Amino acid sequence: MKAVKGKFVTGIVALLPISVTVFIIWFLVIKTGGLLETVFKKIPILSTLPSIVVSFIGFLALLTIIYLIGVITSGYVGRQILKLGENIVSKVPLIRVIYTSAREFTNSIFVNRGAFKRVVLIEYPRKGIYTLAFMTNESNWKIDGVEDNVNVFVPTTPNPTSGFYMIIPRSEVRETSLSIESAMKIIISGGVILPDNRDAQKI
Question: What letter does residue 119 receive in the DSSP assignment?
């Protein structure tokens, strides 16, 4: 029985990463490809195909559209069109705030490579309990006359793209030697995957 149990665990270890990968890809295909499924179902040649096939075609079409938008906006004419669209959006009060915030956040992640580069520990949700966070900006806040308060983003598990923005005293931040990739692995795995070096100290 011990040998059987060992083989069974080995099988799980071998299949689990593949299964998770397949599930994530399937989820992306169904959800993102499904956005165009209704449109493609109206095309006679595609209407008879199974739903999963149409979703996969929609997924490929969406990737192609995103790529083409990237090609267009990389050129001078595309940048001018994008700038014109931003000027129009900036004149609408509520939409302007949402778009500007989304634009700045996107630029900080994909354009400004210096953002989200420092992995720290903070005491959250209470004293004595630590959680991983990312320093998002080196600019200090002045609170009650004390200027040394820093910006951190606390991601959630297992989805690190959502979380909480906090302003906390620098003295309460512990700096780590973790890379952004290592921190993401820890967060996504819920602490199952841990690096060898797990030291933290006050900044």
Answer: E
Q: Please give the C-alpha separations between residue 62 and each of 39, 75, 119, in angstroms, as whole numbers.
A: 12, 21, 34
E-strand spans in 53-177?
118-123, 130-143, 146-155, 163-169, 174-176
Q: Which amino acid does the sequence have at 20?
A: V
pLDDT in tens, 157-198: 887 778 889 999 998 999 998 988 888 889 888 888 888 888
Is 60 exceeded by the pLDDT of residue 113?
A: no
For residue 72, what pLDDT is reported?
85
Per the CB < 8 A criterion, the answer to whether 54 and 30 are in contact is no
Q: What is the DSSP string of 135-148?
A: EEEEEEEEETTEEE
Nearest Cα neighbor of 136 from 158, 155, 159, 156 is 155
Q: Full-prediction pTM beyond 0.90?
A: no
35 token code pair: 């956005």
pLDDT tens sequence across 28-78: 777 777 777 777 777 877 777 787 787 788 888 888 888 888 888 888 888
In the 8-state DSSP scheme, what is residue 192? S
Question: Domain locations in the chain?
Answer: 2-67, 84-111, 118-202
Please say whether the beta carbons of 167 and 149 come within 8 A.
Answer: yes
Which helix (H) or strand (E) segment is 23 a member of?
Answer: helix 2-33
